[in-house]
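This part of the workshop introduces the protein records we will be handling. A record pairs a protein's sequence with a compact description of its fold. Backbone structure tokens are a discrete shorthand for how the chain folds in space. The question running through the whole workshop is how a given chain folds. The record below serves as our worked example for the rest of this section.
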Amino acid sequence: MKSIDPQHLSIKENYKFLTGSIIPRPIAFVSTLSKDGVLNAAPFSYFNALTSNPPLIAISIGRKDGVQKDTSRNAEATGEFVVHIPDESYIEAVNQTAANLGPAESEVELAKLTTVQSVKVKVPGIAESKIRMECVVERIIPLGGESDKPATDLLIGKVVHYHIADELYQDGRIDAEKLQPVGRLAGSNYVKLGETFSLDRPK
């Protein structure tokens, strides 16, 4: 077994080990509005739930040379965003939104996705998504890098409204097989749900 000190690795080498080991990773497809009203959307695979009381979720949004991405900057400016769960039906469109566009350009228009009005936030949602969560910013925490050039923003949001497709909703639960979620692996690789199994938790 290899024994490796991460301090002896480059940023890229550490990234490869993390993204190749922590798999599959859920994907947050996040929409935000700029101060000028431009609808931004981008996928992030450093994403998970934090607590259900209240419902908090977290997304790590990398910076480039210490400069915030549109998603972090917009969320910080407006205090709102919407998280969508990508599934097999529109994952190719989600991938298109990862294109490096300027702040005045909309990835939603580029990917020809359909917008839908939200209930409790001003940021529109994406109609193609079977699950979306309207969120308000709980906290944004710069992490890593250097003091004047953080490596990432940890965006923590409180879910203030859920939208769940009728076909997924089963007695207060979500049918994962009908959702057909897509997860992230390393490089350009993704994964579908695949075979599932159950294990009883020890008492």
Notes: The CA atoms of residues 84 and 129 lie 6 Å apart.
